[in-house]
Amino acid sequence: MELYRGLHNTPKMVDGCVATIGNFDGVHLGHQKMISALKHNADRLGLPAVVIVFEPQPLEYFLQKKAPARLCRLRDKVYFLASQKIDAILSLPFNHHLANLSPQDFVETVLFQHLKVKHLIVGEDFQFGKNRQGNFPLLKRLGEENNCVVDALPTVSQGNERISSTRIRQVLEQGDLGCVEQLLGRPFSMFGRVAHGDKRARQWGIPTANIYLHRLVSPLQGVYCINAVIDGEIHEGVANVGTRPTVDGTKSLLEVHLLNFNRDIYAKNIEVRFMHKLRDEQRFDNVEALKQQILADVANCAAFFQSHFHCVE
Prior knowledge:
Elements: E1 2-5, E2 17-21, H1 29-45, E3 49-55, H2 58-63, H3 74-82, E4 88-93, H4 96-99, H5 103-114, E5 117-123, H6 136-145, E6 149-153, E7 157-158, E8 161-162, H7 165-174, H8 177-184, E9 189-195, H9 200-203, E10 209-212, E11 222-230, E12 233-242, E13 253-258, E14 269-279, H10 287-308
Parallel strand pairs: 1-4, 2-3, 2-5, 3-4, 5-6
Antiparallel strand pairs: 7-8, 9-10, 9-14, 10-13, 11-12, 11-14, 12-13
């Protein structure tokens, strides 16, 4: 799979391609259904399957820190999209120029002149262009003028509710990780490189792997039972996502303590899968009270994994 950053870095597709376009934040089951339709039509036409995304996401450009929390960064999104076995991702920089491009100019320049899209698949509520003036009927008409089939897929529902990134954010806030897994088709996870911290927890005999989130807003906060994927191996642990108010922290940080683990993993990229929420983050009166709570969290986490995933012989 190829990742192209910006239209100027994308080779012109002489024979055309089949494309879909959107945020694809989380790459949830609704997105996966769209990608399945994308691949089916790409195989049918013998053309590349291309997913077009925006970076930053449009609401992040307009709202900055007031934008909804991202479910995944671009790197994570690329990882999940690549697992769907598409041919290419085109990441368009969402900037002043793109934000003010008319729907017609966007379609003509990006989709037809450069990518020569022969079949376009979008969600039924897809809007685009300056002030979100573009919609499916406009896309359909412009597609007919450019020899491109345009299809809109209906939303995918679970029960009576639409599967969407917004709903997943809401369920994450509620701490219902089982429901989140059903909406994503996998556990919710975060990726990052292990960095050096202040090593306070190591002095207590509870060493942590520190991962900076590099997000404007975190989609979840609190203390969780997690599975960490390191070099292809899964290790159980407990993690805190938050600002560490007891020690006057300011930036959101993911801190992971792995059970029965003593290897050096500094600078390694790991995936942290959130399995169960233990509690909300809180401020303690003193560091000793924090230490005792962390020890309790570790014990509660070990008990959770023992009761849910370990078979007794």
